[in-house]
Each structure stands twice: as C-alpha cells, then as structure tokens.
Amino acid sequence: MASGSVADQEGQVMLLGFWFSPFVRRVEWALKFKGIDYDYVEEDLTNKSTLLLTSNPIHKTVPVLIHNGNPIAESLVIIEYIDEMWKRNPILPQDPYERAKARFWANFIEQKVTESTREALLSQGEQQEKKVKELKEAMEVVEGEAKAKLNDKTLFFGGGNGVGYVDIVLGWTCNWMETIEEVGGFKVLDPESQPQFHKWMANFREVPFIKPTLAPKEKLVEYFRMVRQARLGLVANK
Amino acid sequence: MAGNGDGVTLLGYWASPYALRVKWALKLKEVHYEYMEEHLPDKSPMLLQYNPVYKKIPVIVHKGKPLAESLVIIEYIDEVWKHNPLLPQDPYHRAKARFWAKFADEKCVPAMFRAFSKVGEEQVQAAKELRENLKILESALEGKQYFGGESIGFLDIVVGWIGCWARMTEEVAGVNMIDADMIPLLSLWFQKFLELPIIKECLPPQDKLLAHTKEFHKMLTMAALT
C-alpha cells in the first residue's frame, strides 16, 4: 500500500449538487459517514455547468459523484459505489441475505414513498388524492418495518446505534416530508399511527453529521412551492 | 428435473420477463433450483407468505429465506455463487452496469408498456420515446459484443428480454419499437443474445407467448378505449 495522505489514497472526490435536493444530501451522508474528503459544487438549476452536462448527459441532473475523473449518477448507484470503494464504516450489511433485504427496502422506499411523494407534490385534486392514498399505505408498511426492527437499543435500520443503507435512503423524510406536505396541502405524517417512524425521524435528525446538512424548513418550503406552482401552471396551460 | 441440491426454490410465472431474468442468472451460475409455477391471477399462499409487500413473482427462497424483486435477487445470486461473475469486478464498471439497469427499467420498459397498452396519439408518443431511449441504451454497449464484454453479464440478462417482448408487441400492437436503422448495434445484440443456447432454452414457448400477448393487448386497449 502506498503511503501518503489519506486524500492521496482516496483520490479526488467531487460532488455536484443542489442545496434543496434530498438525493444529493443522501450522497453527502454516505461520504460523511465514511469520513471521505470531497469538494462540493453547488449547481445552478437554471444554468447547468458544462461539467454537469458532460458528466451526466443522460439525465442532466444531480447528484453526480466524480471520483478521479470518473462520473457516477443516480443516488443509490453512487452510495453502493462509495460503499465498495471505501471499505471502512460499511453502509450496506456484509451478509448477502441482509444486503439483499436492505436493497429490497431501499427500492420499496424509492418506488412507494419517494416517487409517490414527488407525484403528490406535483399534482392536485383527484390525481393528488390517489397519490396521497398510495403514500399512506406505503407509510403503513414502513411503520410495520420500524416496529419490527427498531427499539430502545436499536435506533436505526442499520442496527445498533449506527445508520445504514436503509436509514440513508429513507432519511430525506425527516426534513423534506413535512415541507412537501405543507406545500402540497396534504397530510401523511401522523405520530399516533406512526410512533416508531416518528421516533426514527427524531433520532435521524440528531445524528451529528446529518443535523448540519438539513436545510431550514422555510427555505425549502419557498423553493418547493415554486416548483409546485410551475408544474401546475404548465399543466393548466396545456 | 434437477433437484433442490442448492436449496433454492424459484416462484415464477411462465410469461413473466422478470422471472425469466432470474432464471437466466441461475442458469449462468449453474445453480440447481426447484421451479414453482404460480397460476396467476390466483396467488398461492406461499407467494403471499414470502412476498407480503408486493405479492408478486419472482420470489426466490434460499435455505428457507425468501427474496423478492428481480434485480435484488440477481445481485444476491451473484454474491452467493461467486463463479461466472455477472457484475464486473471493478466498482466503477459495476456502478455503470447498475446505472444502465435502472435506465432500462425506468425509461425503456414503461415506454414499451405504454406503446403496448395505449392507443392513438399516446401510443405514437410512447413508441417514439421507447425508440429514443433504446438509442441511448445502445451507447452503453460501447462497441462491445455484449454489455458484459466478450461474454454476457448482468446488464445483458437484465435488458435482453426487451428484444423478445418488443418484437412480440410490435406484431400485436402494430407499432415499430426496434428500429434496426436507428439502433443497428443494439438490434444485432438483441439477435445474438436471444440466439445463445443458454438464453434461448429458458424463453417461454413463442407461440404461446404471442397468444397470451394478444389476449393481454385486447384487454388493455379495451380498457383504454372506455
């Protein structure tokens, strides 16, 4: 193994992001969890850099991780890459069956919670009602998992007191879900029917490397309100 | 039929491309498994027990432990049976393979389904979107024989079924999906891939699949018209 600074061994790590993006924050959480030094580049959504457009020509969006000049897009793909490149502080479980289950839950969260929330934000009326209903059903499943896996000694899905893959993937809910509810005018979060989930959110928010990354709610509300109005305006004008 | 020596059971459906890609993974790894056909739309108690979240096939059960979602299952198979690796060894190439698998499943497959199930302008737009996204997918070949390089790998088995189903739905739905002029390399790859003996022998009987696809199409387009 070559000697030298940790930064030399790790190579150059750059993350392209937007301040309001929960997907970018996920990647940051993974990097911070591993203690990886990285350069963060705030992209302008209305004026995307050449670097972003050449690094992610297919989707033209963030997050993009650039490691020693190699670009990787899609937050879940990036997190698995980070976990495979830097072996310390594993994010995914070591056992193949537990890894598979973690990936299963990550996919469930993406399809049923993340996607449905996005669609509820960008719709209204009957269409939104449908999405909110789906979201509520998905949250029942999440609460069920939380009840099964978490207790006073096991605060996170990663086991013990450490966060893991599922926590990082679900983590956006701890800050953005309330924001999107307010902007979209619907309610999904319910401490009475989701006690274990609410405990998990509270614990997640307090994790020392996560807390400082959570953008102030007022700023997020302002931004997502603009996004919703723009989308509904487009739809109305069709 | 090979026995259950590796302790693997696969719950599937003969016409499901998602079950098919798991079969391909098991075949490439030479894993012996017991296959159990679900008689959809009826779902067996076993399926409901093993996949309570989605209640869908494919599900594998390995040493009594169930797993659902075809891509999750394929990665599990790749990690447990280490010979004939499906995913590349290098983390960057693994990331690219996973990126493209996601692209195919999220951008190509829904467009193909819409081109199949919709009518009129919606169908035309969906077919156009599919052709454009297949063109983008073609770039992932990077001039190689297969996505896996000299031999097939993860991305080949994740995406390969599209060639078979697209041809079938072209015939049934009457839209062009695989435009050989637009995607010459991908077109050639589809052909080569589906002709490989190990791949071909797992395909559902084509006449049966065509009849099934016609039935399904009738049902969906009637729903679209009402």
What's the layout of helices and strands?
The complex is a heterodimer of chains A (238) and B (226).
Chain A: H1 6-10, E1 13-17, H2 22-33, E2 39-42, H3 50-55, E3 64-67, E4 70-73, H4 75-85, H5 96-121, H6 125-149, H7 165-170, H8 173-184, H9 195-205, H10 217-237
Chain B: E1 8-12, H1 17-28, E2 33-37, H2 45-50, E3 59-62, E4 65-68, H3 70-80, H4 91-117, H5 120-138, H6 154-159, H7 161-173, H8 184-195, H9 197-200, H10 206-225
Parallel strand pairs in B: 1-2
Antiparallel strand pairs in B: 1-3, 3-4
Could you explain the architecture of this structure?
The complex is a heterodimer of chains A (238) and B (226). Chain A is built from ten helices and four strands. Chain A has 238 residues and is of the alpha+beta class. In chain A, strand 3 and strand 4 form a beta hairpin. The N terminus of chain A is likely disordered. Helices cover 58% and strands 8% of the residues of chain B. In chain B, a hairpin with a 2-residue loop joins strand 3 and strand 4. A four-stranded mixed beta sheet of chain B has the order 2-1-3-4, with helices on one face. Chain B contains ten helices and four strands; from the N terminus they run E-H-E-H-E-E-H-H-H-H-H-H-H-H. The chains are: A alpha+beta (238), B alpha+beta (226). Chains A and B meet through strand 4, helix 4 and helix 5 of A and strand 4, helix 3 and helix 4 of B.
Q: Can you tag this structure with a few keywords?
A:
heterodimer, A: 238 residues, alpha+beta, 57% helix, disordered N terminus, B: 226 residues, 4-stranded mixed β-sheet, 10 helices, 8% strand
Radius of gyration of CA atoms of chain A, rounded to a whole number: 18 Å
Helix content of chain B: 55-70%
In total, how many beta strands of chain A? 4
**Largest binding interface between chains:** A-B, 23 and 23 residues
**Low-confidence parts of chain B, pLDDT < 50 over ≥5 residues?**
none
Describe the main β-sheet of chain A briefly: 4 strands, mixed
Label the structural class of chain B: alpha+beta
Computed Rg of chain B: 18 Å
Sequence stretches where pLDDT stays below 50 over 5 or more residues of chain A: 1-8
Q: What global shape of chain A is seen?
A: globular
Shape of chain B: globular
Q: What integer is the average pLDDT of chain B?
A: 94
Instruction: Describe the oligomeric state of these chains in a short phrase.
Output: heterodimer
